[in-house]
Amino acid sequence: MDIFYKIFLTLFGLLIGSFLNAVIYRVPRRISIITPRSSCTKCKKLIHWYENIPLISFLLLKGKCSKCKTLISISYPLIELTCGVVAFLLVPQRVTSEALIYFVFYFGTFAVLLAQFLIDLEHKLLPDSINIVLVLLILPVTIINQKWNFWLLGGLLGFGFPFVVTWFFYLLKGKVGLGGGDIKLFGILGLYLGVKGIFLNLFLSCMLGSVIGLSLIYFLKRDKKEPIPFGPFIIFVAVIQIYFPSYFREFSRHFLGF
Ligand SMILES: [Zn+2]
């Protein structure tokens, strides 16, 4: 029976990966994710269902549109594969209804964070509609598992601290530092991570952002004025915090003393 779940949930992961490709392409371009049906971005040929099977279609089409032979980005099968592998790894040892709820939470949260990561990287934007899905995944699990003050204070610090800093930065320099999407994302993650966790995320994502931002300017001669999307740093740290929590407990005990 368990092998059945393993296969079924992995296929589910691949399908969500395929859906995620549509989300990542359409949401930042303000195209509905339901209609119209997928088409080639070049020649607009409609994509048949058999050309839209995760991984398999890409291999059968040899990575090209069947009509105009335009190359299909390798990112499509890579996102499908990533979601399939993550789903496979997250399938619970013993399948119970509770374990399945947590599977949905962990896998869904991963998929949402992956979409936000890639959209922010390309469009410098964290869409509200996807942030709302993250709230819907995080809030029920947090309310069940944590006292009200844990998530409420975490959310308030996550939203309030970067909001106040950005506001002061704006008053001083007349420039907006962090985008609204980043501040909302901090707030939502604060619900799950609590005060300590979101403090750690704020600290580490800023460190990571500074190091990578300065390296890009220094080594790759990137224009200083061109803004760098900050969401990927928040998400990178959050993924380790959510999926490898013990690693972070050790880190904060050793280096930060709490
Ligand atoms: Zn085409």
Total number of helices: 9
What integer is the average pLDDT? 92
Q: What ions, cofactors and ligands are bound?
A: zinc ion
Shape: globular
For the biggest sheet, the summary is:
none
Number of strands: 0
User: pLDDT below 50 for ≥5 consecutive residues: which ranges?
Assistant: none
| Range of strand content | under 5%
In whole angstroms, the N-to-C terminal distance is: 43 Å
Structural class of the helix and strand makeup? mainly alpha
The total number of structural domains is: 2
Element pattern in H and E: HHHHHHHHH
Radius of gyration: 20 Å
Fraction in helix: over 70%
What does this structure look like?
The protein is mostly helical. The chain has two domains: 1-95, no CATH class; 124-258, no CATH class. The protein is 71% helix and 0% strand. The chain has nine helices and no strands. The chain has helices at residues 2-26, 56-60, 75-90, 97-123, 128-145, 148-173, 180-219, 231-243, 245-256. α6 crosses α7 (180-219). It is globular and about 55 Å long. The mean pLDDT is 92.
Topology:
Blueprint: H1 2-26, H2 56-60, H3 75-90, H4 97-123, H5 128-145, H6 148-173, H7 180-219, H8 231-243, H9 245-256
Helix pairs in contact: 1-3, 1-4, 3-4, 4-5, 4-8, 5-7, 6-7, 7-8, 8-9
This protein binds zinc ion.
Q: Summed up, what is this model?
A:
The chain has 258 residues and is mostly helical.
